[in-house]
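Tokens as discussed.
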């Protein structure tokens, strides 16, 4: 019974975006728990990956291609907690998408600063909704 409680608590931490969710499973039973990612969580993972690739291209001064429409899904993807999609979420997601788009319009001199602006708009929203992943998002910043 005690183990079950721990498992359930672990699941709640994970879903509520707590930093502890990135901890390694503490025992075999926990490893077996199947987590279900929300559409938004999956999109966020994809946005992380895409922007890690984009960062490499900017740092290596390679061509960066075009803005991907998949980022627009932030306006519709289903959240773990649908109540998180409030007015402030809409404002932050709009600012984020604009900053992401602007990277592809920036001059070579401005592209790094514009990329960092985009990363800061990820962080700005996360401060209001989901602070767990912030240390990971900060690693995207180009120094
Ligand atoms: C408008 C607000 C907002 C913006 C902008 C935003 N996020 Fe998120 N992010 C969230 C919310 C809310 C969740 C929780 C999603 C859920 O559980 O359904 C989340 C979840 C995540 C997660 C955890 C996903 C998981 O594994 O559970 C990561 C990583 C993440 N975001 C990275 C980013 C990155 C990188 C950016 C910018 C490229 C970004 N976010 C922009 C609100 C935002």
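Sequence:
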């Amino acid at each position: 019974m005690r183990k079950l409680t721990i498992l359930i608590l672990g699941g709640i931490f994970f879903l509520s975006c707590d930093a502890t969710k990135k901890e390694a499973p503490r025992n075999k039973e926990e490893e077996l728990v199947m987590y279900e990612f929300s559409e938004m969580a999956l999109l966020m993972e994809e946005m992380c990956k895409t922007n890690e690739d984009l960062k490499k291209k900017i740092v290596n001064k390679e061509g960066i291609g075009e803005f991907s429409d998949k980022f627009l899904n932030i306006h519709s993807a289903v959240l773990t907690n649908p109540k998180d999609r409030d007015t402030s979420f809409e404002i932050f997601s709009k600012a984020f998408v604009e900053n992401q788009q602007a990277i592809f319009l920036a001059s070579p001199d401005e592209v790094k600063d514009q990329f960092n602006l985009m990363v800061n708009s990820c962080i700005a929203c996360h401060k209001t909704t989901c602070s767990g992943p912030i240390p990971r998002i900060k690693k995207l910043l180009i120094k």
